[in-house]
Design goal:
The protein has helices at residues 19-24, 58-73, 92-99, 109-125, 144-163, 174-185, 197-203, 246-251, 268-295, 305-323, 342-358, 370-377, 393-397, 447-461, 476-481, 514-530, 537-544, and strands at 29-30, 36-38, 41-48, 80-89, 129-139, 169-171, 216-218, 223-225, 228-237, 257-265, 329-339, 362-365, 389-391, 413-417, 424-427. A hairpin with a 5-residue loop joins β1 and β2 (36-38). The protein has 545 residues and is an alpha+beta fold. It is 39% helix and 16% strand. α9 packs antiparallel against α10.
Length: 545
């Protein structure tokens, strides 16, 4: 069902859009399932989750890299795929609602306040940024029904390809997609996002009202976005050898920013034809150069280095396509970042360009193209910058978007800090398929402290039953402080409890003969205490009687 159009229809399901807003946010129509129509194209966005690539062994990294190459090879022909990495400030309101302990109004609120202060302190030490990863596929289709059928097939391929890397894919709704744009257009106001489809249709409002900033102005080399300023860069010069850590190093810079990698797969027949034309062109240049040298009676001159290098590269490219299961892809890397003022923006731009230069890559500012560049970076499905580079599958895969998996489960407890991203590890083991665990380590490494910390967090935030078997009597004070009950079992303590192994409680045996079950228990108890070979037959008879 179409939710919004440009012109009002008789069914009152469409609303006109102001031209100024339309120019800045080039979304023509949105649909309930998250499909957007932008500039004659239909696009859809999926969110995918990180994998532990940076901390993996070299063998595991190579395996993940080859799997990612296979995923890129499966991207659809005739469509544009945009991989977007979005760094944004942690929403303090959402953080407090999902990751901090709520007060219960009892005497243990003192400990909950202390726990929340600890978590907030650790969060302040981190870069206070969270990174989200999205992939947007756009294609020109005649109708939205045709686009939906196409995106259904693409979604299945994306799920299958990324699952081989232990990454999951989630299709986002129209609200999620609008919220993504809202969080970028309105940094610091993430908690103010409101969008209700029924109310918007009933009131006749424009859906862009819920995401558009107060003002947006595009200048020569930057743009103004409400109370913030931003700038968009593009990767102009690629290094001869690009490290797979280039993208992650750029995104580690602690600022609100968004980086997009546009990938346009080229059909194999078109790629082979194009490379053959390039080879013929290079050979023609070499032949003409040699003819000029022969006319000058220079029959021993060597072919110039640049022509020889072009010949070698084109032949190697053809070999990759024909023999190494590579595909030709057109790639474009764009990056936009936000700052509070122009001075800070210039400093951040220099820092990002320095990070690129350290890896042999040159990022340049897009001058007089900031509007087109911004719409290219955003996960809308547009590519309005003509600065693509011809790459093979492996060269494209080097622009690796994966780094380390983040664990921040709602309702979880604090376990530590991610060694790579320095973000908090908040895990809810109840969400796992198998939530069991054990703690190992050398003496003095903090095993008991880790156990006490987890027990305390569970006691303060849940109503779980916690049973502690404590032979060393080191958990008693903690249990009493948390309002628990300590039962001392001792044969020598007059105030302790005693266990009668011969005791028969009601319902003992689960329906079986209780005396037989108790006899077998006592027999196994003696065998454990004395050894199975130490009990004589007459002693077993006495125990049975």
């Amino acid at each position: 069902m179409i939710l919004f159009k440009h012109r009002r229809s008789a069914e009152r399901d469409a609303f006109s859009v102001p031209r100024s807003v339309q120019k800045s946010i080039p979304i023509k129509r949105i649909y309930q399932d998250g499909v957007f129509q932008v500039s004659g194209k239909f696009s859809k966005t999926w969110r995918f989750f990180d994998v532990n690539y940076a901390v993996a062994s070299p063998e595991k990294q190579r395996e993940l890299f080859m799997t990612y190459c296979s995923f890129l090879n499966s991207l659809p022909i005739g469509a544009t795929a945009k991989i977007t990495l979005f760094n944004r400030q942690l929403n303090q309101k959402d953080f407090g609602r999902t990751l901090l302990m709520p007060m219960q109004g009892d005497r243990r609120d003192l400990y909950r306040n202390e726990y929340n202060a600890l978590v907030l302190g650790k969060a302040a030490e981190s870069n206070n940024l969270i990174q989200e990863k999205y992939i947007t596929v756009s294609a020109e289709k005649k109708s939205v029904e045709e686009a939906r059928a196409f995106f259904s097939r693409v979604g299945t391929d994306l799920t299958t390809g990324l699952s081989r890397m232990s990454s999951s894919v989630r299709e986002i709704t129209v609200n999620d997609r609008l919220r993504l744009l809202h969080d970028f257009y309105r940094p610091g106001e993430e908690q103010l996002f409101r969008f209700n489809l029924e109310d918007t249709i009933r009131k006749g409002h424009d859906f862009r009202d819920c995401i558009a900033p107060d003002c947006i102005s595009f200048q020569k080399n930057h743009y103004e976005l409400g109370n913030h300023v931003g700038r968009t860069l593009f990767l102009r010069e690629y290094a001869s050898f690009i490290s797979d850590a280039t993208i992650t190093e750029l995104m580690d810079y602690p600022r609100n920013m968004m980086l997009s990698i546009d990938i346009i797969p080229v059909a194999m027949d078109e790629a082979v034809s194009d490379i053959r034309k390039r080879i013929m062109s290079v050979e023609s240049d070499i032949t003409r150069w040699q003819q000029r040298q022969n006319q000058n009676n220079n029959f021993t001159a060597n072919i110039p280095y640049d022509l020889e290098q072009m010949r070698s590269e084109t032949k190697e490219f053809m070999t990759d396509l024909m023999s190494r299961d590579q595909r030709m892809m057109l790639a474009l890397v764009t990056l936009t970042h936000l700052a509070d003022n122009l001075e800070q923006l210039d400093q951040d731009t220099e820092a990002l360009q320095a990070i690129g230069r350290a890896r042999g890559c040159q990022f340049n500012i897009l001058r007089y193209q900031q509007e087109d560049a911004l719409n290219t970076v955003l996960p809308l499905g547009l590519k309005r910058i003509d600065a693509t580079r011809t790459l093979t599958t492996e060269c494209t895969a080097v622009l690796m978007p994966f780094k380390s998996q983040e664990i921040q489960d709602a309702g979880g407890i604090y376990y530590g800090v991610n060694a790579v991203s320095h973000n908090l590890i908040i895990c809810n083991r109840g969400n796992l398929l198998n939530g069991n665990g054990f703690i190992t380590g050398v003496s003095g490494s903090g095993k008991s402290m880790a156990a006490k910390q987890e027990m305390t967090a569970l006691a303060l935030s849940t109503d779980h039953d916690i049973i502690i078997v404590d032979p060393e009597r080191e958990y008693g004070e903690l249990v009493r402080a948390l309002g628990g009950e300590v039962i001392t079992i001792s044969a020598s303590d007059p105030n302790g409890c005693h266990i009668n192994a011969l005791d028969l409680s009601e319902g003992y045996g689960d329906g079986k003969e209780p005396l037989v079950m108790k006899s077998e228990f006592i027999m196994s108890l003696y065998e454990q205490l004395m050894g199975a070979d130490k009990i004589e037959p007459q002693e077993k008879s006495i125990i049975d009687r």
